[in-house]
Design brief:
The chain is mainly α. The protein is built from 14 helices and no strands. About 25% of the residues are buried. It is found in: Membrane.
Length: about 300
């Protein structure tokens, strides 16, 4: 049966491909964290570039615009375009793509964990999944590092005769470079994941093809399991599910589990991302920090 193939995978020793899977699956979380957490410093750069003439709060993006731009990662562009109005054209366009980035990030979290869990053996599955999610911390660190390096590079390239109260013209390029660099790990992740075979657990249990699952795993893992599948091929389930994904039957069977899991993630993300994305405003208001310390 296909369960014998899966048992062989659970007993497989740790190999090079397991660590490669950590990088491939974790690179998605790395990219997610980079693209999300580079937003707050970029907001500061946008304030320096596009809101230099504000009399009341110089270099500061208006709170309504700031909240809407950050909210487009989750809420889309409908509210964003109402607030932006005739502002520069990049604002609604940026909000549009940040919305779809948010959809992709939301889908990548469970996908990365699933990829790693299905490639892992039984004894190291938890540790490997934790290693994948630790890539998020590296992405946060990378976003801050890249922002500081790019900003310092453009500052050094600007004329030394500029006053401290003047924003160099090249600053308009700096925030674009920071966002552009986030596409590099995203492109690598797309390529690597397209090169990965389907996981054996999905092929054996969902597609009912234990032989193909064994062949796929033998290409990447040093295990010999084809003879298991050939000697005892998987049999179709007695009562295969006949309901589609978007149906009342699916909702009755899996709806409560899906809702519970999604709700816990939602509650966690409200606290986690709101405190992270608005931390400069929180520190400035409640800790009394000066404006230039809140970049």
């Amino acid at each position: 049966m296909g369960l014998r193939v899966l048992s062989a995978l659970d007993a497989a020793k740790i190999q090079y491909y397991h660590f490669k899977a950590i990088i491939v699956a974790g690179m998605g979380l790395f990219t997610d964290a980079y693209d999300l957490f580079c937003i707050p410093p970029i907001m500061k750069l946008l304030g320096r570039v596009y809101y230099e003439d504000n009399r009341d709060d110089k270099y500061q993006i208006p709170q309504a615009v700031l909240a809407t731009m950050l909210g487009t990662v989750l809420l889309g562009t409908v509210i964003g375009q109402l607030v932006f109005g005739p502002k520069p054209a990049f604002l609604p366009v940026w909000g549009f793509f940040r919305f779809f980035l948010g959809l992709g990030i939301g889908g990548d979290y469970p996908l990365s964990a699933t990829i790693m869990s299905e490639f892992s053996n039984k004894n190291t599955r938890g540790a490997f999944i934790a290693a994948v999610f630790s890539m998020q911390g590296l992405g946060i660190l990378a976003s801050s590092t890249v922002t500081m390096v790019v900003s310092k590079t453009f500052e050094a390239a600007a004329s030394k005769n500029l006053s401290n109260d003047h924003t160099p013209e090249d600053a308009d390029i700096a925030w674009r470079v920071i966002l552009m660099l986030g596409a590099v790990p995203a492109g690598l992740t797309y390529y690597w994941r397209m090169m990965m075979p389907e996981t054996a657990r999905y092929t054996a249990l969902v597609e009912n093809n234990a032989l193909q699952a064994a062949k796929d795993m033998e290409k990447v893992l040093d295990v010999s399991i084809c003879h298991i599948a050939e000697d005892d091929p998987i049999q179709p389930p007695q009562n295969p599910p006949s309901y589609p994904l978007f149906s009342m039957q699916f909702l009755r069977v899996h709806g409560m589990d899906l809702f519970s899991c999604a709700t816990t993630w939602l509650i966690l993300d409200i606290a986690f991302y709101s405190s992270s994305l608005f931390q400069s405003q929180i520190y400035k208001k409640h800790l009394g920090l000066q404006r230039h310390y809140c970049l």
